[in-house]
Amino acid sequence: MSHSPTKGFTLAELIISIGIMIVIGFAVSQFIRNIFILNSGVYNSLTAQLEGRKILKIMVAELRTIAPSALGSYPLDTVATSTLIFYADINGNGSMDRIRYFLDQGSRTLKKGVVSPSGNPSSYNLNSETVTTLVTEIVNGTSTPMFDYYDSTYAGTTTPLSIPVTPSAVRLIKVTVLIDKDPNRSPNTISIVTEVAPRNIKDNL
Q1: In what order do the strands lie in the sheet with 109-115?
Q2: Phi/psi class of residue 92: alpha, beta or left (left: φ > 0; alpha: ψ in -120 to 50)?
Q3: Burial classification of residue 129, based on how many CB atoms lie within 10 Å of its CB (0-12 exposed, 13-18 middle, 19 or more buried)
Q4: What's the CA dihedral at 107, 161, 114, 47 to 10 degrees?
Q5: Model pTM score
Q6: Domain assignment present for 184
Q7: How far apart are CA 118 and CA 82, in angstroms?
Q8: pLDDT value for 73
Q9: What is the model's pLDDT at position 110?
Q10: 17 assigned to some structural domain
Q11: Domains held by the chain: number
């Protein structure tokens, strides 16, 4: 009585099978990695947009209600490409606070400083300024200022006023925030732009 020979893998077949499994395993791991990176990028993009829009909404609300300081100073104090200082009652207590929005280039963050008036007569002690970080991963540069300023001739496509700007000439402020949560990954930089014409200083806008 004869017996059929036992079939098995040859060494060559085993090596080929292992190679195929390695290739498939690598492809699957790369696919999972790419999905993770894509999801992370989309999440970062959405987070950046939400953060930026939230901050600009607050900034616009404050700028619309600017008024002379507790000392009678002009509502706009400093108007520069990466710094904007003005006076507004942000606490609703009838007292004009000194508000400073500024770009910290070193840490790539948009920050806000607040000084409330104190004493009699009132004064602003800059050493008492409370500074908070609003948005991180800011990538604004010299080619894209955070703040642009326009006078009463603004018609939608007018060139911004040249720096230095005289605060009393400003009738509209354009704010541009560029955010990139991870420069090494897509999607690209998020740009959030808004314009505001302060009510207490506007004329023909």
Answers
A1: 76-79, 83-88, 97-104, 109-115, 130-135
A2: left
A3: middle
A4: -50
A5: 0.75
A6: yes
A7: 27
A8: 92
A9: 93
A10: no
A11: 1
CB 45 within 8 A of CB 53: no
Domain assignment present for residue 12? The answer is no
Q: Would you say residue 202 lies in a domain?
A: no
Which residues form the domain of 98? 35-196
* Sheet-wide strand order for 172-179: 147-150, 172-179, 190-196
**Lookup: tokens for 65:** 């209600």
Q: Which of 66, 32, 59, 20 is nearest to 146 (CA)?
A: 59
pLDDT averaged over consecutive 10-residue blocks of the chain (205 residues)?
A: 58 78 79 62 62 84 93 94 95 91 91 93 93 90 90 86 93 91 68 90 60
Helices (H), the chain: 11-64
Task: Locate 90 and state its tokens.
Answer: 């942000």
Measure the CA–CA gap between 115 and 132, rounded to whole angstroms: 12
User: Which helix (H) or strand (E) covers residue 99, if one does?
Assistant: strand 97-104
d(C-alpha 107, C-alpha 164), whole Å: 25
Q: Which two tokens stand for residue 49?
A: 């947009």
17, 9 Cβ separation under 8 angstroms:
yes
* Cα radius of gyration (the chain): 29
Q: Which amino acid is at 148?
A: D
